[in-house]
Amino acid sequence: MTSTTSGPEGSGPTELTGLTASELAAKITAGEVSAEEVTRAHLDRIEAVEPDVHAFLHVNGQEALEAARRADEDRANGRAASPLAGVPLALKDVFTTTDMPTTCGSRMLEDWTPPYDSTVAGRLREAGVVILGKTNMDEFAMGSSTENSAFGPTHNPWDLERVPGGSGGGSSAALAAFEAPLAIGTDTGGSIRQPAAVTGTVGVKPTYGGVSRYGLVAFSSSLDQAGPCGRTVLDAAMLHEVIAGHDRMDSTSIDAPVPQVTAAAREGAAGDLRGMRVGVVREFAGEGYQRGVLDSFNAAVDTLTSLGAEVVEVSCPHFEYALGAYYLIAPSECSSNLARFDAMRYGLRVGDDGEHNTEEVMSLTREQGFGAEVKRRIMLGTYALSSGYYDAYYGQAQKVRTLISRDFASAFEQVDVLVSPTTPTTAFRIGERADDPMAMYLADLCTIPSNLAGNASMSVPSGVSAEDGLPVGLQIMAPAMADDRLYRVGAAYETARDAASGSSLVDRIPQLEVAR
Amino acid sequence: MTAVAEIMDYDEVLRNFDPVLGLEVHVELSTATKMFCGCANEFGAEPNTRVCPVCLGMPGALPVVNGTAVESAIRIGLALNCQVAEWCRFARKNYFYPDMPKNFQTSQYDEPIVFDGHLDVVLDDGETFRVGIERAHMEEDTGKSSHVGGAAGRIHGAEHSLLDYNRAGVPLIEIVTKPITDAGERAPEVARAYVTALRDLLRSMGVSDVRMDQGSLRCDANVSLTPKGSTRFGTRTETKNVNSFRSIERAVRFEMRRHAALLNEGAEIVQETRHFDESSGETSSGRRKEEAEDYRYFPEPDLVPIAPSRDWVEQLRGTLPEMPWERRRRAQEQWELSDEELRDLVNAGALDLIAATVDAGASPSEARSWWVAYLTQRANERGGELASLPITPEQVARVIELVNEGKLTHKLARQVVDGVLDGRGGPDEVIAADELEVVSDDSSLQAAVDEALAAQPDAAEKIRGGKVQAAGAIVGAVMKATQGQADAKRVRELVLAACGQQ
């Protein structure tokens, strides 16, 4: 579907890097191309565009090529590890990996290479997926722009002056810049979906517990969820099936069969949504929403109707309190989760000079090792959990959480999926919201309810906004354990969208000028 | 503390105040693996060799609850007559300390797994005292710090510290009593008796090593005083890690006397942690509670709630062994013991040993006699516990059997037991090595009898004349001649037969 060729300057995606994961997988399986060639093409692309994009914190060239050669050998021996064997991927730098550092975008863990692999990394390796490197992120996944990375921001391939969203901006930018056909993100309040929306890519937050969190460095344990990212719904589905499923190392992982998401994506691509009831969340519109975002959303709803879906408006009256509840629960949990970074066992150590005692070393390390946003949230959370304030803040937020779950439950009695814009605006400029945390937090207004309730949610591109030509995301939400509905609706919409515009959205991603 | 605390005479304390006790006992469970990971739960391994990403609190690592630990917690609760929660959660207790890898302890807060029970403890005079149990909850142990270069391993003045995380994540059950308000003068004794009874109970259940010396049973004693006639509890102090039963009693008594002296002067009790000094028998000020952190408890989001089904609870109730007090009552009945005899035997720690000896074939009275008398004496000489003597109940039963068969005299039996205690093998091996068996070979005995009768013709004549009591002198002579190895009963029979009296 992609026919973009690289220009004489090599600024566009090559024939191989322009392909989707499913296309690459098919070519590798057919023996038309080797996994090594595919990996090399992506490594070349990374080398070419990274000076502009800065999606990666670490590129693991040699290991990636070795993994690709192993995948080629396995395939030659007739035992390909999985349908995605040999396909490259970019991994958010929040998953532990034994062959690469895991920094979480923080000085605190600069150069820290974990002694164990996360379950997600392990499953990717077992499936023969080639991990190209680790992607940039807001420090400890706290942010909506990747500007909070201690190692500098990632730039949005659609407009290098703009943010790629966050916290998983590195993963989404890597997809949009054709540096990788697949990526893994984590979503605590929208960190997969919001970056997907503003980079014109697909991102899925599976049902809470659908993908193991073992080895995912925790921000907010009850909200964090790992998920797949790709340039198409089908690619995300194939990746979803590789990483999902019960893990006895994670007590909160669901011990039930993984929803048949690849089958659902293929079924959806046929373009028939008859019998599917779609609810438009009334509360996610109006003030604060960019005109072009709402127009794109409304057009997407019309498309769903044209595919046979029955569209109704539903009300989720407590969603307006979601942001407030989130900014009590997530900081509370993070204040505890991040307590372990104390210079004693791993990571940064400041002040170990014989002049300072243990407590001082802990303080100095945390003072210098954490960035401003992380400190802000640790302080917020510490306060919210304090004796005398617990009931008013954390306790109250948990009650709101219950009410939001009930809103979802009653909505899902009426409809099969809910839809909304993924984020109220298109990508904002780097620095634009850096000094205004509230404006930054609003980017996750529509995505947070799904984290609080634990249900499944996807962002699929719905075209570009008329005002700025930047991508807009359509959010689809499904009940817990019904992740397959996201893929069916998402794939149906995606097919119709491309048919209407006459080309794939990814073809409209600007070709990057290589900084040489 | 530089100045030695003023203390009040104990009797005077009791004239003016009523003591209130609260006891917190931490028990390390003897599960094969740790509370939240698969590392071995072992005491004494090389530092930092029983660790993994989970118990080291590595970024990204997650806990998984040890099912056996939950089972033990419920069983302990049932043995303590507690209710078992239908639904409960773990909670994080947040504070910074280098030996705690995550800088929070995964514990339980307001939803303990078991609550509201009691334990009846027997005091020294045989009277029973009921101690209310507030709750018991599950948590994980911390690692261990050792401070190098300072005085006596204390952190103050240390040059550096070493951390061993082998203990981090070991399953703990914390058992908390309700306030004990009616112990009066017996408060220190009640404290000791309670912890002792708890130790016995947990040991009989096989859930813990319950070794105070190794820290698998640790007691914190909270003490406060209420002025006579008042109903308001006074300010309490918490004396930590008192590591023997006797120390618990001494620490409570000392704190009562110290509090009373302060209150008497109109001074205030500082709510604080205190350390007990074994050698002086005194406590000293530790961490002040007012400086203690706000632990910011909240439900542990990495673990799912525990909802023990009623069926499971009843099934676990069925696995409870006979409780120590039931066992004592049964022993008293079956072995026909007086209260005093029972108390001596329990105090000697001989109940299980006697029971095992009886199981191995001995009569209760003979078994009791050996363990409570001779062996207790030997244990005392060695300065150890009866149970740690290197002799088994089966070996004691074998010695008793040999005595009953006439193959050993009591004197020889003691020599055999001493041989076993000296590590020279089992009873039969000691007998063979020392040729201690009673001489019951009639032909060799007959010769000795004839010799003795010939040597004492007067006595022989008396016996022949019907004065059988004169046989004693001849038997004695034979025993002497055989160096005590003859079966005296048989010798007597031979003597009487030789004199025509049978």
From TrEMBL, chain A:
Keyword ATP-binding belongs to the record: yes
The protein, known as: Glutamyl-tRNA(Gln) amidotransferase subunit A
Assembly, per entry: Heterotrimer of A, B and C subunits.
Family assignment from sequence similarity: Belongs to the amidase family. GatA subfamily.
Residues the record marks as active site: 92, 167, 191
A Pfam family hit: Amidase
Function of the molecule: Allows the formation of correctly charged Gln-tRNA(Gln) through the transamidation of misacylated Glu-tRNA(Gln) in organisms which lack glutaminyl-tRNA synthetase. The reaction takes place in the presence of glutamine and ATP through an activated gamma-phospho-Glu-tRNA(Gln).
Protein source organism: Actinopolyspora biskrensis
NCBIfam families given in the database record: gatA
GO molecular function: ATP binding; glutaminyl-tRNA synthase (glutamine-hydrolyzing) activity; transferase activity
Key words, A-Z: ATP-binding, Ligase, Nucleotide-binding, Protein biosynthesis, Transferase
Known EC number: 6.3.5.7
Residue span, Amidase domain: 37-486
Superkingdom field: Bacteria
Residues in coiled coil: none
UniProtKB/TrEMBL annotation, chain B:
EC number in record: 6.3.5.-
Chain segments annotated as transmembrane: none
GO molecular function, one term: ATP binding
UniProt keywords, alphabetically: ATP-binding, Ligase, Nucleotide-binding, Protein biosynthesis, Transferase
Pfam family, one: GatB_N
Region: Disordered, residue numbers: 272-293
Swiss-Prot/TrEMBL GO biological process terms: glutaminyl-tRNAGln biosynthesis via transamidation; translation
Asn/Gln amidotransferase domain segment(s): 352-499
InterPro entries: Asn/Gln-tRNA_amidoTrfase_suB/E, Asn/Gln-tRNA_Trfase_suB/E_cat, Asn/Gln_amidotransferase, Asn/Gln_tRNA_amidoTrase-B-like, GatB, GatB_Yqey_C_2, Gln-tRNA_amidoTrfase_suB_CS, Gln_synth/guanido_kin_cat_dom
Gene3D superfamilies referenced in this protein's UniProt entry, alphabetically: 1.10.10.410
Reactions listed under catalytic activity: L-aspartyl-tRNA(Asn) + L-glutamine + ATP + H2O = L-asparaginyl-tRNA(Asn) + L-glutamate + ADP + phosphate + 2 H(+); L-glutamyl-tRNA(Gln) + L-glutamine + ATP + H2O = L-glutaminyl-tRNA(Gln) + L-glutamate + ADP + phosphate + H(+)
Family statement: Belongs to the GatB/GatE family. GatB subfamily.
Complex and partners: Heterotrimer of A, B and C subunits.
General function of this protein: Allows the formation of correctly charged Asn-tRNA(Asn) or Gln-tRNA(Gln) through the transamidation of misacylated Asp-tRNA(Asn) or Glu-tRNA(Gln) in organisms which lack either or both of asparaginyl-tRNA or glutaminyl-tRNA synthetases. The reaction takes place in the presence of glutamine and ATP through an activated phospho-Asp-tRNA(Asn) or phospho-Glu-tRNA(Gln).
UniProt protein name: Aspartyl/glutamyl-tRNA(Asn/Gln) amidotransferase subunit B
Organism: Actinopolyspora biskrensis
